[in-house]
Amino acid sequence: MKLQQSIDLYVKNKRAAGMDFSTGHRSLLSFVCHVGNVTLNRIRPRQVESFLDGPRTSNWTWVAKYNLLRNFFLFCVERDLMVPLQLPAPRRRPQQTFAPYIYSIAEIRLLLSKTGICQGHISCRIDAQTLRTVLLFLYGTGALSGEARRLLREDVDLKRRIVTIRNKKSRPTRRIPIGTDLSEILAAYSSSHHSCTPIISRYFFASLNGEAISDASLHQIFQRLRRIAGIGRRDGIAQPPRMHDLRYTFAVHRLTAWHKHRADLNHMIPALSVYMGYVQLAEANRFLRLTPERFRSQLDKLSSRQAKRHWRDDAALMRFLHAL
């Protein structure tokens, strides 16, 4: 079988399992460009090595490409599409040196106050209110930016204060409650953008022409907003604060508030995982190391460590979640 045909089969299998797999697909297409659309058994180890050791390839990228090719070749071998291929020795996964940035309340307010300046030019395709409301939605729900961009008008039930988050990847679709303040902000945005504009869009958050907001443009706009607001890192990490860090900020601020109000964190930490779209009870533990030092050890003792257990298997937790 030809390489391109086998890649199409592999990608189809991944997407049938509910994965988007766009990044992996692009990397595999790059491999085709590198070795040519040859039959699978004509691929040689030296070709794989030269692909992995390509120019401007960091250790993280090398490991990601290696794991992608290894899994792809295993898929082909298991289906008798090729004979096993001797791969180079794997590299040790590099140590994680990046840490998410946790915005302060003052910095959140500063970002929101600068949206008018950021989006004041006539050429901007996203108006200031849309940008401001998207940021408040991300901070108020911990949703991913892609989840916000894909949000349809029918997904936002302002009467019951319920938002349906639809996903194309491995995360399941979920319905989350929102607070009164966020509900009022979304209602004001809906009133001004869905009733009083000449272009009617099916998306809840839309560009000025009614189309979905692109991922690249939203992240580019956020970085411009961040620079205008003068928000940067002072911890020695080169990567600047990201829009995605609003998700981490949401989680850390919730954990901090719950701890201060003496909430039952044995219930609340798993509930946070469910609310944010995770399916395992311990996935919210990643946020514990980002909480303030003065009570991190207390939070760590209370968190669930059942990393392989699915939250739906906990009957007591399910009763608690249904009662929210």
Any descriptors?
mainly alpha, hpI Integrase, Chain A, 14 helices, 3% strand, globular, disordered C terminus
Brief rundown of the structure:
This protein is mainly alpha-helical and 324 residues long. 50% of the residues lie in helices and 3% in strands.
What is the topological layout?
Elements: H1 3-16, H2 22-35, H3 45-52, H4 59-78, H5 105-113, H6 115-118, H7 128-141, H8 145-149, E1 156-157, E2 162-165, E3 174-177, H9 180-194, H10 215-229, H11 245-260, H12 265-275, H13 293-302, H14 315-322
Antiparallel strand pairs: 1-2, 2-3
The separation of the N and C termini measures: 53 Å
Give start-end ranges of low-pLDDT stretches. 302-312, 320-324
* Fraction of residues in H or I helices: 40-55%
The secondary-structure class comes to: mainly alpha
Can you name the CATH architecture of the largest domain?
Orthogonal Bundle
Global morphology:
globular
Q: If helices are DSSP runs of H or I spanning 4 or more residues, what is the number of helices?
A: 14
- The SSE string, one letter per element, is HHHHHHHHEEEHHHHHH
Tell me the strand percentage band.
Answer: under 5%
General description of the model:
This protein has 324 residues and is mainly α. The protein folds into three domains: 3-78; 105-229, Orthogonal Bundle (hpI Integrase, Chain A), CATH 1.10.443.10; 263-322, no CATH class. The chain is built from 14 helices and three strands. The protein has helices at residues 3-16, 22-35, 45-52, 59-78, 105-113, 115-118, 128-141, 145-149, 180-194, 215-229, 245-260, 265-275, 293-302, 315-322, and strands at 156-157, 162-165, 174-177. Strands 1-2-3 form a three-stranded antiparallel beta sheet, with no helix packed on it. A hairpin with a 4-residue loop joins strand 1 (156-157) and strand 2 (162-165). The protein starts with a helix and ends with a helix.
